[in-house]
Amino acid sequence: MFGKEVIVTEVALRDGSHAIAHSYTVDQVVRIAKALDDAKMPYIEVSHGDGLGGSSLQYGLSTTNEFELIEAAVNTCNHSKIAVLLLPGIGTVKELKTAAKIGAKMARIATHVTEADVSKQHITMSKELGLETVGFLMMSHMAPTEKLVEQAKLMESYGADVVYMVDSAGAFLPHEVKERIAALRGSLDIEVGFHAHNNLSLAMANTLVAIEEGATRIDGSVRCLGAGAGNTQTEVLIGVLERLGIKTGIDFYKMMDLAEEIVAPILQTPQEITKGSLILGYAGVYSSFLLHANRAAKKWNVDARDILIELGKQKVVGGQEDMIQEVACMLANKKLSVF
Amino acid sequence: MFGKEVIVTEVALRDGSHAIAHSYTVDQVVRIAKALDDAKMPYIEVSHGDGLGGSSLQYGLSTTNEFELIEAAVNTCNHSKIAVLLLPGIGTVKELKTAAKIGAKMARIATHVTEADVSKQHITMSKELGLETVGFLMMSHMAPTEKLVEQAKLMESYGADVVYMVDSAGAFLPHEVKERIAALRGSLDIEVGFHAHNNLSLAMANTLVAIEEGATRIDGSVRCLGAGAGNTQTEVLIGVLERLGIKTGIDFYKMMDLAEEIVAPILQTPQEITKGSLILGYAGVYSSFLLHANRAAKKWNVDARDILIELGKQKVVGGQEDMIQEVACMLANKKLSVF
C-alpha cells in the first residue's frame, strides 16, 4: 500500500519566509539549518518566498540578501543539501548560476501548472550547472489531470529529475490528489513529488494519499512555517511516517526539539487556519488575491468571500488582478437585481 | 462513495474547556452559542471538559458552575440542541437529571473503550429522561476492532441511539479508522459517530475516512478549541464537506465569522501541534500522562518521550499513573546497562 521510503525537503526557510515577511537573518538560518542538518534532513530549501530574485516591492523585500542566507546554510550543513526555488520571470539564469556557485545542490524550477514551457531554459541550465533539477508545477488544482500530466511530461523532456505537483492554494481534496498522482506515476519515468498547504486542514491527508500513490519526494515545513496555513508539518509527518513504517532517515526526536525550541519562537503569528487561509483554500485562488478582494468588497459592498469563490470558478490566475474589480462589480449588480 | 448528509456536534464549549483551563463565563457561552445557533449548528455540547461533575481539584475547577453555562446555552438557542457529556464515576445520575431538567436534549455517556458495561445505568436513565443518548467510547485506538465492536454493541443493547468511536489521544491513522468504522457500521443498527483529535495532523483526514465508511455523526471544535491539538476544526470541516457535496445544514460563512470574531479572541494559546501534543498522539496515551512523564524523566534522567511511548506500548490507562515511575526506572536501568 505504501512505499518504504520517502525523501523530504524542508521548506520553512523558503515558503516560511512568506509567514515572517521575508525577515530571515543569517543567525536564524544558521541555527535552523544546523539543527535540520543534525536531524539528517536530506534537503533544505533556502530562497525568498517567491524564489530567487523575489525580493522586491511587489513580492516583499528580504531583510537579508538571499544569497547570504543560502551561503550560510551551505556552510553550516554537512549532511543536508541546499535547494533553491526559481520562478522564471521573477528569477533569472544569472541568479541560478550564483546559487550553484555558492554551493546549492538542487534547483526547483517553478511555473504555473499550465506554463511548463517557460521552464525549458532554466531546467536546461540547471542541469548544465550540475544541479539536481526539479520541475515544480504550482496551482496544480487549476488544471485537469490530463493537462497536468502533459505539463509534467514537458518538464521531464527538458531534463528534470523530479516533477512536483504543488498545491499552492491548499485547495486539493484527497481523492483529487489520488487521481492526479496516480496519473503522473503512470506517465512519467522520473520521480514524482508533492507539496501541500494546510488551508483545508488536509495537508497531511493529501500527503499520505500522494505517498500511497507513489510520490517519493515530499515537502514539509517545521511547525507549519509556510505561506497561508503552512505546509505539511514536517516533525508531525516524520512521526506519522514512522508509525506507517516508511523510512525518511530523519531523526523524529530532533525534529520535535528544533520545532519547539528554534522554529516556534521565530513565528510572529501562530500557523492556525484562519478565516483568510480557509477561504483561499476553499476558493482555490492565490493568496495575493485576498487583500485585493477585501478592498473590492468594501468598494462594491459585497462579501469578499463571494468574490474569491467566483475568481476560483473562473480560474483567474496571478497577473489578472483587474478581474477582481470586474467580479466585485458583477456581484454588486447581481445583488441589486434581487431587489 | 460519501453519504449525502452528516450531523455535526460542536464541542468547543466542552472539549475546548480543557484548552482554556475550564474558565468559560456565561457571557462567553452565550455569545458562542448564539452565533452557533444562528449558523444552524444541530448540537452544541456544554459541560466541564471531563464531563458533568468534572469540576474538582483533580480535573480542574470550573470558573463558572457548568449548570449555569448549560442553562445559559439552552436559553440562548432556538435551533441548536444542547448536549452534555457524562463519564460515569466522575458524573452521576443526579447531574444527568439536573441537566435534563434545565433543558439539555442529548446526553453522551462516555467510558474507556473496554468499559462500556459501566455505562448501562446511565444510558438507561438518560433514555428514561427522554434524552437522545449517545455511547461515547474513549481511547478507541487502545482496543482491537473486535473488542471495539463488542463494546459498541453493549451500548446499543443498553438503548443508546448512537455510538461514537472517540480518538481521545489523536492517535489513529486513516487506515485504522477505516477498518474500525466499517466494522461498526457492519455490526450495529444504530448510527455511528466519530470524534477526532488533531495531534498527528490527521483529524480532518480521519473524519473524512469515517464519513466515507458511513459515520453520520461528527464532532468538531471551532478554531480547534479542544484538548491537545484540538479536534476537527468545525468551520474548515463545513467548507470541506460543501466541496464534497455533503450536507450539514450549517452556514459556512457564519461559522467562519464566529471562529474569527468570537472564538479566536478567547483562545489563550494558539491551537498548534506542539511537541507535547505530537508525542501524546504518537504514543497514544492520555494527555494527563505528559506532566507525570516529564517529572519522572527528570528524576530518572531519561527522555519523557521514551516513557510515553513505552506507556503506549503497554496500553497503560488513566488511574495507572504509578506505572509511569516504573517505566521510567526500567528505562534508566536499560540505559545504564548499555555502558
From TrEMBL, chains A, B:
Q: Where is this site: Transition state stabilizer?
A: R14
Q: Where does substrate bind?
A: R14, D15, S168, H195, Y286
Show the SUPFAM superfamilies listed in the entry.
Answer: Aldolase (SSF51569), post-HMGL domain-like (SSF89000)
Xref: Gene3D superfamilies: 1.10.8.60, Aldolase class I
Does Manganese count among this protein's keywords?
yes
| Alphabetical list of CDD domains matching this protein | DRE_TIM_HOA
Instruction: Cite the binding residues for Mn(2+).
Output: D15, H195, H197
Pfam families listed in its UniProt record: DmpG_comm, HMGL-like
UniProt-annotated catalytic positions: H18 (proton acceptor)
Source organism superkingdom: Bacteria
EC identifiers of the protein: 4.1.3.39
Q: What's in the keyword line of the UniProt record?
A: Aromatic hydrocarbons catabolism, Lyase, Manganese, Metal-binding
> Pyruvate carboxyltransferase domain: from which residue to which, for each copy?
6-256
Catalytic reaction(s) noted: (S)-4-hydroxy-2-oxopentanoate = acetaldehyde + pyruvate; (S)-4-hydroxy-2-oxohexanoate = propanal + pyruvate
Q: What family name appears in the similarity comment?
A: Belongs to the 4-hydroxy-2-oxovalerate aldolase family.
User: HAMAP family from the xrefs?
Assistant: HOA
The entry's protein name is 4-hydroxy-2-oxovalerate aldolase
Q: What is the lineage of its organism?
A: Bacteria, Bacillati, Bacillota, Bacilli, Bacillales
